[in-house]
Fold these 4 entries.
Entry 1:
Amino acid sequence: MKTRITELFEVEYPIVLSAMMYVSVPKLVAAVSNAGGFGLLASATVSNSEEEVRKAIREVREMTDKPFGVNIPMLLPERFKVAKVCQEEGIKVVNTSIGNPAELMGWAKEARMKVIHTCGSLGHAMKLAKHGIDGVIVAGSEGGGHTGFVGTMVLIPDVADKVKVPIIAAGGIADARSLAAALCLGADGVAMGTRFAMTQESPVPENIKQRMVKATADDTFASDMATGFNARALVNDYVKRLMTYRKGASSWEKLLSAIRLSRKLKMRAGDMAPLGRKALTRNAESTEFNMNMVPGFERIRRAYQDADADEGFLLCGQVAGRCDSIPTVKEVMLSVVSNVQAVVDGASVKIRP
Ligand SMILES: Cc1cc2nc3c(=O)[nH]c(=O)nc-3n(C[C@H](O)[C@H](O)[C@H](O)COP(=O)(O)O)c2cc1C
C-alpha cells in the first residue's frame, strides 16, 4: 500500500502508532514498526533524563531494524536536549506536539531530520505549513489525550483543502473503515493511539485495558481541568469529581503531586523549582510546562504506572467504545490493511449511477 506517508516514512503501510506517554514504549513501538507501520516513541515520561531517551531509542533498535520516530512535546523543559539525543542516535523523524515547533525547525533542517507536528486545529496546521513542516498529524476531538475541539470528520477535509504537506489523520481511527474514511477525507495515512494502547504488546495495566474494553463511546470526558489543556480520558471516580465540581487541583494537591511526580520520575529538585515560577508568570498563550499542570500529569502517571483505575487520569479516546478485545499489534495491522479495499469497494457499490 503506497501513499505519501509510506514514502515519507519509508514503511509498508500508512499507519502510525500515536505517541502516548507511558504507553508508546520501546516494545509497542517496535511491534508497530515490525508489523509494517511507523512507531512513535513517547519521550514525555523519560525526558527528564536525556540518557533515558537514548536508552529507550536503543531498546527499540534491539527489537527492530525498521524505521520509527520520537515524539517531543514542546512543553517539555528538556525538549532541546531530547532533540539533540535523537540527532546523535540517528533518528530521522521527530514528532513535535503540544506547543510550537518553530523554535526547533531551523535546527532540525540543519540536522536533516524530518519534523511532523501533531495539531488539533486548521489554524495551527496552516501556521505549521508556513514553517516548513514535513507533515502534520491532525487529531480530531474524539481522540484520546490532549485534543482539540473539532471532530475528525470536519477537521481533516478542512486541513486537506488548505495544507499541501502530507496529512496523517488521528482521533477515532481503529479499523479498515476508519482508514478508508480518513483517506476519503483527504488524509494520506492515519495514526492510532487508543487502538494500539488496547493490544497485547501495550504496557497499559491489565485492569485499565479491561476498563477500555468495557467502555462505550459515551464513557470518556474531555476537559482542561486536569492538565491545563483539553484532554480526553475515561470517566472514573477522579473524572466524575472534575465533572461535578468543575475545578482542578487544590494547592495542596499541586504540592503533593509535585513531590510524588519528582520522586517517581527521579526528577531533580532543580528541575521542579522553576515550574512554580512558570505557573505564576505564565501568559495565557504559553504552553510551557508549569506547576498547575503537574497534578494532571501525576494522575496520568498514576493511571499508567501505578494501575490506579479510579484515581488516575486514564487518557483514552472515544474509539475505545468500538474496540472490544485485546488483539496483538500484528492482528490489528492485518485486519486494517487486508480489509480496506473491501471497504472501499463496498462503499462504491452503494453509489448507484
Ligand atoms: C494514553 C495516551 C497518552 C498520550 N500521550 C501523548 C503524548 O505523550 N504526546 C502526544 O503528543 N500525544 C499524546 N496522546 C495523544 C495521541 O498521540 C493521539 O493524538 C490520540 O491518541 C489519537 O486519538 P485515538 O486515541 O482516538 O487514536 C496520548 C493519548 C493517549 C490515549
Entry 2:
Amino acid sequence: MKLLITFSTLFLFNVFYIQLKAQENPDYTEISDNLYVISNTDGGNVAFLVTKKGIVVVDAGATPKNGKRIISIIKSVSDKPIKYLILTHFHGDHINGISGFPNSVKIIAHSSLTENYKQFNENNLKKYIDNVLPSYLVNLKLQMGSMKNKESEEYLTLKNDYEINQEYYNDIQNIKFREPDITFNDFYRFRISDERIMLECPGPGHTNDNILVKFSNHNIIHIGDLVFNKSFPYTIEEHGVDIYNWVKTLDDLKKENIFTVIPGHGEVGPKLILQEQSDYFKSLAQKIERLKKQGLNLDQIIAKCDLNDYDLIGNEDQFKVNITVIYNQLTTSKVEWWNF
Ligand SMILES: [Zn+2]
C-alpha cells in the first residue's frame, strides 16, 4: 500500500485504506440512547442518530463503496429513512461516500464546503484517476511480470497491493459530489422528533469550513478533524488551517457540558481528548518559540524536534508539517497563544 501512503498528503483519500481490508467489517457502537458511532477506518468516523422521524448521519465515508457500507450498517440497526447527512468539512475521507447515499437525503454543511471541494478535491481526484493510480498499477504489473517465483512472499505482496489499488481505482471513479441542500456560516440549529441538533462553525481550525455537531440531548459532540485522537493531526495551510483558533476552540469547548467526544479519526473518548489535542499543539508551539528565540531557523527547529516525544501513532509524516505551520503562524501572529 505504498502508493496511498506516499500520496496521503493529498488528503483526498484516506491513509488507512489498507487497515480496513484487514478488518473488512467495521462495526458500530451505541454510545448513547439511539446514537451510534461507526469507527470508520476507511475514512472519518461516522455518527448516526436514530429518531422516530428518521435518521441523522454525520459524515459519509471516503469512497462510494464506503458510503454504501455505512448505509448498510445503518440499515442493520434501523429501517427508518435517512433524513439528513451532515458533513463536518470538505476533506474527501469525510465526504466522498456521498454518492452512496440516496438523493432524498438532505445534506447540511458549511457554506464554504462546495467552493473548497471545487478548488481542491476536483483536481486532485482527476489527477488520481488520470495519472497517479493508472501509472502506479502499470508499474506494479511490470514488477510482477519480472519476477520468476510467483509463489514468493514478495510477489504475493505486490499482487495484493495491485488488487487493492485496482479495486480502489474502480471505486473512486464513481465519486460524485452533491452540493449541500442546507448551508450556513456560523450556526444552524434544528429539531427532528424530540432530538435537538446544534451545528456551529467555530472559525478556521483544521479547515476553514470545519463545523461542530452537537447532539444536545446527549451532551455528545462530533468534532470532525478538530481532534485526531492519538495520531498526528493533518494541518494543511492551503485549506485554511489556523492552529491558534483551533486551540482556542478546543479550550472553549472544554468549558461546555460535554461528556463524550467523537473525533474525526481515532477512538471515541471523554472530554479529556479535547485537552490532549490542545496540549499537543501548545507544547509543540512552546518548544518552537523557545528555539526560535535562540535564533534557530525552521530547518534547525525541525531537526531539534523529535516525534517520539509525543505519545501519538499514525500520520507521522505530518509532524514536520505541524512544526512548519506552527512556525509560520508564530512568525506572522503576535499573540502568545499557548498561554490561555
Ligand atoms: Zn480533514
Entry 3:
Amino acid sequence: MSESMNQPIHDPILSIKNLTVVYKDTLFSLKKSRFSRPAVDGVSLDVPHRGTIGIVGESGCGKSTIAKSILMMTEPCGGEILFNGTGLDSWRRNRLAYYSKVQMIWQDPFSSINPKMRIQEIISRPLHNFFHLSSDEIAQRLHATIRKVGLTEDHLVMYPHELSGGGRQRVTIARALISEPILLIADEPTSALDVSIQAQILNLLKELKQDMALSMVFISHNISVVEFLCDSICVMYMGRIVESAPREVLVKDHRHWYTTLLFESLPNGPRPKERKFKVDLGELAVCEKGCSFAPRCIRAEKLCFESSPDLVEIGPDHFCACHFHA
Ligand SMILES: Nc1ncnc2c1ncn2[C@@H]1O[C@H](COP(=O)(O)OP(=O)(O)O)[C@@H](O)[C@H]1O
Ligand SMILES: [Mg+2]
C-alpha cells in the first residue's frame, strides 16, 4: 500500500481529474433547479510540488466544494483526486496520515477554533492526534510554530476572544502548520478580515510557503488577492473552470469575458467609461444548453446559448472555454 508519506514526493503533489460533485436535493430545498446542477462540473487541475494554485470566482461557483472534496469532507460523484500519486480512496483508509500532510485554513477564524480552549491547546492539538511526541518535543514544536506565524509566548495562555481577527487567523495558520504539512488548502482565509489585516496575513502566507516548501490551493472571490499569492490561476464560473493560466498570462492576456469582468470589478479597475462591461446586471440566469456565462456576456451570440464551449488550450498552459475568446 502506497498511502504513507515515507515515499518520495510526487510531482504534481495534488491532481484533480474531472471532479464532479452534485449535492442531493433536500426536502427543504426551494431552488430545486439550481441544487440539481452540479456544484462542481468536470474540474481538472494539478498542483505542482511547492506550487500555489489559485481558484477564483464569485460566491456559489463551487470553490469550497473543491476544497471539501480535497479534504474528503464531501463525496464526489465523478472523477478522482490523487494526493502524492495515490487516490483518495486509498487515503480514506489512512485519514490520520493524510491530514497530517494536508491541512486547511478556513474563512472565519472564530468559528473554526474552540472558544473554550487556550491558544496553546488549540495549536498543539494536531500533534496529539497525529504523532506520539514527548511533552518536551510538543513544547519545542509549539514555540517554533508560533514564532513562524508572528505570535508570542504571551498569546499562548490567552483565549480566542482575547485576540483580534488577524491574531485568530494566525492561530489557525499555526494549527495548520504544526504537523508540517506539505499541502495547504486555504479557503478565503482573508475574506473575514479588515483590509489592513488582510495584507499582513497574505504576506505571512507568502513567506510561509517559501520557508516551509509548501504547496497550496488558495481560494478567493477576489482576483487581486489570488494574483498576489499564486503561480497559476483557475477562474471558475458555475461549477466549471472557464479559464486557467500562469499568473502573468492571466493578468496581462486573459481571454474569457468573465475573467475580464472580474478584473473590471476590482476597486482599482478601469474607470466606468473605459470598462467593457458597462453594466453588469449580475444575473445568475441559467443557460441550460450553452455557455453558462452567456446570459451575462457582452460578446454572446446565438451559438453561445446553444452549445457549451470546451476548455481548450489557446496558448502554452493557457486554457479558455469560450467560443469567441478575446
Ligand atoms: N451542503 C450543501 N448542500 C446543498 N447545496 C450546497 C451545499 N454546499 C454548497 N451547495 C451549493 O453548491 C454550490 C457551490 O457552493 P460552494 O462550493 O460553497 O461555492 P463557493 O465556495 O464558490 O461560494 C452553490 O450553489 C451552493 O448553494
Ligand atoms: Mg466558499
Entry 4:
Amino acid sequence: MVATPTSERLHIGLFGRRNAGKSSLINALSGHQTSLVSNIPGTTTDPVNRPMELRPVGPVVLIDTAGIDDVGELGALRVKKSLDVLDRTELAVLVIDMETEPGEPEERLIGELKARKITTVGAVNKADIDPAQATRKASQLSQRYGIPFVPAATTPGAAPGVDLLRQLIIANAPAGQNEVPLVSDLVRPGDLVLLVTPIDLGAPKGRLILPQVEAIRDLLDGSAMVLVVKETELAAALAALKRPPALVVTDSQVFGKVNREVPADVPLTSFSILMARFKGDLPELVRGAQVIDALQPGDRVLIAETCAHHQQGDDIGTVKIPNWLRKHVGGELAFEWAHGKEMPADLSPYRLVIHCGGCMINRQLMMTRLRKAQAAEVPIVNYGVCIAHMHGILARAISPFKDMGV
Ligand SMILES: Nc1nc2c(ncn2[C@@H]2O[C@H](COP(=O)(O)OP(=O)(O)OP(=O)(O)O)[C@@H](O)[C@H]2O)c(=O)[nH]1
Ligand SMILES: [Mg+2]
C-alpha cells in the first residue's frame, strides 16, 4: 500500500448552498481541476472524496458535497447525503457566495456543527467580484456566527485566491482523532510481538489487510520486534522463541485455536479488539457484549460492515457471526445488514448492533455511530468483542487493557 488510507486522513467537509463554489474551491485547494464546476445549481449530487497532502497538516481528504439548499424530492435526498457527511467530518468549511445573504440553510448547518462540536471555518467566496466588500463581509460573518471567515476566490489570478482559506484550514486543523496508538503502547521497545494472520480465501491477493499493516507499522514505530505467522505456524513459532512473546495479536476468526496454544501467562488479544480501542470506545463495546447472553430467538440484530469486500462462502459478517449467534441463542434471530457508510436512521428497533472493526472509516464516524446507538439505548459491540465473547475468551482478550478502564 503506497498511499495513506482514507480512514487515517483528516476529514475536511465543504458545505454551502448550490453554486457557492464548493467544487471550485476543492479544485483550487488541491491544484487539480477534477471536480465538475458549472453555473447550473446542483452540479455536485453525491459526496466526493478528494485525498490530498496538505502541508504541514499531512494527509487529508477534502469532501465535496451537494448544496444544503437543494429543493424537491431528489434535492432533499441530496441534502440528507450532504448532512450525513457531518458524521465523519473533523473540520467543516462553510462556503458562502459573497453575493448571497446567509440565512436559514447556513444557520441550520451551523447549529448542527456546534451541537456536534465540529471545528468550523468559513469562506466568503467569489471575492474577485469585490475584494473589499468580501473582506468586510468576512469579518461581519465572523462576528455574527462566532466562526472565523476569510474572503476567497477561485478565478485564476484573483487575490486573495485560496491562500487565506488554506491558511485558515491549517491553523484550525484539529490534531489527530486517535487518542492512543493502535498497539505500541502495550509493549516496550525491544519487546517481541507475535501476530497471527490466517491467509484464507478472504485475504486480499498479494497483500495484508489494513489492521495488520497498521499494527506492524505502529510496532516498528515503537521499536518493538514483530513476528508474523499464519495460525498453522503458531506452535512452531512459539517453540522457536527463546522467551515467550510480550504480546500475541490474532485475527478473531482463529481466536479459539490461538487461545489454546498460547500459554495462559502470555497476553493475548485480537486485531479487532485493538481496532475497537483505536477507532471507538472499548469499554462501551465490552459493555455491549453483556446483551449477547440475554438475546432471545426472534430479536432483531443489525450487522454493520463498512468495507465493500468481496464476500466469500464463509463470510464473517453474513455467515460466521450469524451462525455462532444462532448457536449461542439456541434459535433464529432477525438479522439485518448495513453496508458502507449507510446506517438506518432509527436504531431503536434493534436489540443489538454488531459493528465491524471499522478499519476503513475514521474514528469520527465510528464515534458518531457509537453515540447514535447510545442515544437509542441500543447496545453495540464490534466483531472482535462479539466473537471473543461467544467463544468465552473475552476476559482474556481484554486483559492487556485492564489498567485502561476496560
Ligand atoms: N466570480 C467567481 N465565480 C466563481 C468562483 N468560484 C466559483 N465560481 C463560479 O460559481 C459557479 C458555481 O461553482 P461550483 O464550484 O460548481 O459551485 P458548487 O458550490 O460546487 O455548486 P453545486 O455543485 O451546484 O452545489 C460556477 O459558474 C463557477 O465558475 C469565484 O471565485 N469567482
Ligand atoms: Mg459542486
